[in-house]
Amino acid sequence: MTRYRLALLLLALGVAFSPGCRGGRSRNELTLAGSTSIQPFADKWAEVFMAKHPDLGINVQGGGSSAGIQACKSGACEIGMASRELKGDEKDLTEIVVARDGLAIIVHPSNPVRGLKVAEVKQIFSGDLIGWKPLGGPDTRITVVTREEGSGTRGAFQELVMGKTRIFRGAITEDSNGTVREIVTHDPAAIGFISLGLVNAQVRPLALDGAAANDENIRNGSYRLVRPFLFVSRGEPAGLAKQFVDFVLSDEGQALVREEGLLPIR
Amino acid sequence: MDGPAKKRGGTRLERNDRLVRLALLVIAFSAVSVLVVITVFIVGQGTPIMFRYGLKSFLAGTSWYPSEKLFGLWPMIVGSLFVTAGALVIGVPFGLSCAIVLTEFSSKRVRSIIKPVIELLAGIPSVVYGFIGVIILVPFIRTTFGGPGLSVLAASIILGIMILPTIISISVDSLQAVPPSYREGSIALGATRWQTVKMVLFPAARSGIIASIILGMGRAVGETMATIMIAGNAAEVPHSLLAPVRTLTSNVALEMSYATGEHREALFATGVVLFVIIMVLNTIANATSARRRKQP
């Protein structure tokens, strides 16, 4: 009977063209779906986990935080991945923080501005502050680069920096961390936000409220732009799901987190 | 559809013939039915939300904040129109001059070199155009004119180049289709070559040239990859040529990966608007070229 209902559910999901997870499952297979920010790390965990347990299968799919949470709620997958806090009726799911990710505000390396107040960042992204001059930068307009609606990174930025204020309409909008970084790399007047793990030498992460964007400041709480990477499930994970979560939280799993540029939970 | 059947069944050859005809018919209709399925699907997914929030607020609303349930498509509609108009301003003069030179003022040898090159232009994938735009054009605009570089201007220039092959090849065809007697008659009356082109050939080939422009317009409206890379995608009515702009196609492609619920429906609604625009353009193009065929 449950199999029948599952089939119906999968059918409904397929009809709605929902991203997330479908496909057959057996006891030896675990499906994760959700945030594309977590996906590459989950792939890494799955790879190492499966190398240790060749008889078990971990299936990692994207679709975005919201889709992953929905898929988990509906039972279409065992574990949903979310790169933002749960809200509203999502809160009845069990959440496990598997890693944390800093959000870096980046500018062109030639920009003399080294740090900003969070309030100033907010003014820039709301369109109230349009030039670099009052911030100690060059006498040019600020090129504001943001992510598209629905992106987890934008969601985190909105929550951590903007609050209820909107990102202004005239901001350049790109659909990945990579393209945001690319634009900031080439435009001396640009400012954008990307995952801290993806900052490279071609862009400069700004200090916020006097705290540089690094592991130490995130750990002691002085750098505030941090978002959790969550695994969510209905009830406590059991069986294979528990085995996988335990692996992710183990020293070995967390070492992988650090290796890949994220912040471990401990 | 059936030939005169002498008796039921007929010979084996006749039966085979009927079978093949039926098979071809089924295949032909399945190709058409794909279009029907797509249309039904897009309209079915996209229209309910338009009426739920009101057609007016959907088409004329200026705020696009799907997370706050604000679905104003106006900036994207205007964006598409601006960028397309810009592409035409750049593409039409170049395209038509090229077509005229190719048909009237060039030797066979020059034509045999230029024509294939232009056709090659049509074969370049749009992502390559976008890439060239990002690497060369955008920094050029940023350093020369200021602003972020990702702009209406950049998108117009790249799209203008992209529609050249469409405009040139169809215009050349329709200019060449003008009967030689027109040209000869005009020259015999003492008109210069340019006067001939301007006053005889151009009016005679007008409907074909208009069709080429409309088809080029359709390509510009529908282009996604290149625009998403070079237009900057700000969901705001651009206030200058150097401001970033978001087109209807970019809107769908940019946000589809994470869109759920009403946001997803709103993207389908964007598709409906786009669909209507393209349909209107194609119908106009077909109508003008149909009139051309009726002409003597």
Number of helical regions of chain A: 9
Strand content of chain A: 15-25%
Structural class of chain A: alpha/beta
Q: What is the global morphology of chain A?
A: elongated
Number of strands of chain A: 11
Total number of beta strands of chain B? 2
Q: Could you report the average pLDDT of chain B, rounded to the nearest whole number? A: 89
Major sheet size, sense and barrel closure of chain A: 9 strands, mixed
User: Quaternary arrangement of the chains shown?
Assistant: heterodimer
Q: Give me the secondary-structure category of chain B.
A: mainly alpha
Percent helix of chain B: over 70%
* Sequence of secondary-structure elements of chain B: HHEEHHHHHHHHHHH
Main sheet record of chain B: 2 strands, antiparallel
Q: Compute the CA-based radius of gyration of chain A.
A: 20 Å
Low-confidence region ranges of chain B:
none
Specify the helix fraction band of chain A.
25-40%
Written as H for each helix and E for each strand, in order along the chain, the element string of chain A is HEHEHEEEHEHEHEEEHEHH
* Computed Rg of chain B: 24 Å
Tell me the strand percentage band of chain B: under 5%
Give a brief description.
The complex is a heterodimer of chains A (266) and B (296). By secondary structure, chain A is an alpha/beta fold. Chain A has helices spanning 2-15, 39-52, 65-74, 118-125, 152-162, 177-186, 215-219, 239-249, 251-259; strands at 29-34, 57-63, 79-82, 94-107, 115-116, 143-147, 172-174, 190-195, 204-205, 207-208, 226-233.
